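A.,

Following up on our hallway conversation. Structure tokens first:
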């Protein structure tokens, strides 16, 4: 008995901006529709489109102002689900709006801006924490504390610094 194999399912984010510009942004297969309600995930998905919108390279870091301009031009979000068959044939399975009214779009705008601001603050805090940790280690090196068997750092301070360094070190996927 031949079992019918299910085709790969694609999801596309539809983005409508002022001036009736419509963009389709493919979404990675592991991202579910519910994930689009998370503003951090939505911001990461939209980042390449914001870079395109401003005509900058895809490796260019966006400023808060650049992202704000894009977000303020955002008029509507929706999605499409497609099944993909051989030879690039796609079947539209579902197409629905994410934003149904002005309140929905305003909520998304505010959430995206908060997400962006929190990312910036996190990066500033991480940089300052790295600097502070570096200073502590440099001071301890000067005192000879890190070279001795019994470092001059208290056990609690030492474990906090180790944990902070671990958290601030980029993790491999």
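Then the amino acids I'd put at each of the 173 positions:
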């Amino acid at each position: 008995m031949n079992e019918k194999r299910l085709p790969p399912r694609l999801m596309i984010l539809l983005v409508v901006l002022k001036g009736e510009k419509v963009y389709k942004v493919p979404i990675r297969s592991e991202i579910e529709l519910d994930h689009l309600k998370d503003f951090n995930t939505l911001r990461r998905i939209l980042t390449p489109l914001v870079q395109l919108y401003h005509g900058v390279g895809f490796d260019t870091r966006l400023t808060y102002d650049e992202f704000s301009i894009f977000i303020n031009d955002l008029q509507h979000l929706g999605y499409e689900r497609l099944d993909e068959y051989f030879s690039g044939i796609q079947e539209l399975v579902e197409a629905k709006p994410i934003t149904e009214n002005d309140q929905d779009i305003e909520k998304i705008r505010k959430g995206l801006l908060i997400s962006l601001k929190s990312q910036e603050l996190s990066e500033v805090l991480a940089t300052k924490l790295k600097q502070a940790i570096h200073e502590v280690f440099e001071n301890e090196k000067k005192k000879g504390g890190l070279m001795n068997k019994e470092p001059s750092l208290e056990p609690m301070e030492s474990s906090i610094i180790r944990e902070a360094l671990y958290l601030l070190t980029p993790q491999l996927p």
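The mean pLDDT is 80. Curious whether your intuition agrees with the design.

B.
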